[in-house]
Amino acid sequence: MSTYKRLPVAFESGSGAWLIDQHGQRYLDALSGLAVCGLGHAHAAVQQAVAHQAGQLLHTSNLYEIPLQERLARKLCDLSGLDRVFFGNSGAEANEAAIKLCRKYAHQKGITEPVIVVMQGSFHGRTMATISATGNAKIRDGFSPLLAGFEHIPYDNIDALRELADSDSQIVAVMLEPILGEGGIVIPTPGYLPSIAEICRQNDYLLVLDEIQTGMCRTGKWFAWQHESIKPDIMTLAKSLGNGVPIGACLANEKASQAMLPGSHGSTFGGNQLVSSAALAVIDFMLDNNLEQRAAVLGRDMLEQFSGTLAGLAGVKDIRGAGLMIGIELHEDCTELVELALAQHLLINVTVGNVVRLLPPLIISEAEAEQIVDTVCGLIQKFLCG
Ligand SMILES: *Cc1c(COP(=O)(O)O)cnc(C)c1O
């Protein structure tokens, strides 16, 4: 179906931060397949895990015990301090699980028409529940009737949540991205997330963080909430969890997760042997090579270089980032930069029309990071000066 407007290039192989097209041309990847390939392409550890597992067993279903899935769940719980995990196959499914969990929890508490507070400008996926939660009219238009039970408030506005909390007794949870990804790399004011967490605590709301784009070391921490002294009740992961093998996860603490009982929710493929082995390889490599720290340091350097060259330039509105999640906001629409970059063999993305979004693999070298900065700066300078 014509759901995608594709760029006219097809890649046949990859290595690290590089992709090679059908004609043998090399492209530097500053997008990682939309924050998926944190370890880059054709990574040896993932390749070995997947190949080995394919020779053993791919899938048995969740009718049986899956020790690899249990090991993966334990690792994710150790990293996050949360207690339980449900595995699906995508980000949207991870968020579906989170939404269902909130509703189940609400009904147990006697809230019959539960409301989940969500944010304008957010993105949570493309299923019916997740577009209903998403705060972007373009994604919702044409798909009504949407699901009831979501209240959208402005992002990074703590008063909006306070007001709603005072007036609505059916609220069960607040669900948000710690940094808006598709919404334009919007980083909330320091203290915003702790204030949300405090309101959740006072009102007994579940705090649900969508870390699908920000998680897995992307922002210089395993999870973006670790930059602040807070902890969610529920967290969702996907994208770089499997480095390209489709896997999503919904983690929860004991308080929230007890709402789910055998039969409450399920997935045929979720957390099968193949995807669990890939995700375990990803986590082990990230831990062994301290990619958390690497993303923090490289990201800080790149942001400094971008600011050094672009800050103050008329036409550049803002330069911001956390780890290797970087946004350069222009005053005007700059969608065409994607194709101009492609012509220079660099893969970037522009989101919400005027924000250049960079999500390079966490394994890039200093030289590759510099090459990304130089090329992007050159493109933006040329674009702005005509
Ligand atoms: C990409 C993304 C999703 C959706 O993930 P899919 O795997 O495409 O379903 C949800 N939330 C956020 C924050 C994302 O960036």
- What's the CATH H-level superfamily name of the largest domain? Type I PLP-dependent aspartate aminotransferase-like (Major domain)
In whole angstroms, the N-to-C terminal distance is: 36 Å
Structural class: alpha/beta
Number of strands: 15
| Bound ligands | pyridoxal-5'-phosphate
CATH fold field value of the largest domain: Aspartate Aminotransferase, domain 2
Share in β-strands: 15-25%
* Overall 3D form: globular
Give start-end ranges of low-pLDDT stretches: none
Strand order of the largest sheet: 4-10-9-8-7-5-6
Report on the structure:
The protein has 386 residues and is an alpha/beta fold. The chain folds into 2 domains: 11-30 and 290-385, Aspartate Aminotransferase, domain 1, CATH 3.90.1150.10; 46-288, Type I PLP-dependent aspartate aminotransferase-like (Major domain) (Aspartate Aminotransferase, domain 2), CATH 3.40.640.10. The protein contains 13 helices and 15 strands. The protein has helices at residues 32-35, 44-56, 67-80, 91-109, 128-133, 137-140, 158-167, 192-203, 254-257, 273-288, 291-310, 337-343, 366-385; strands at residues 11-15, 18-21, 26-29, 84-88, 115-119, 150-153, 171-176, 206-210, 234-237, 248-252, 316-322, 325-330, 346-347, 349-351, 355-358. The protein has a 7-stranded mixed beta sheet with strand order 4-10-9-8-7-5-6, sandwiched between helices. It has a 4-stranded mixed beta sheet with strand order 1-2-3-13. A hairpin with a 3-residue loop joins strand 14 (349-351) and strand 15 (355-358). The structure holds pyridoxal-5'-phosphate. Residues 90-92, 95, 123-125, 177, 181-182, 210, 212-213, 238-239 line the site of pyridoxal-5'-phosphate (PLP).
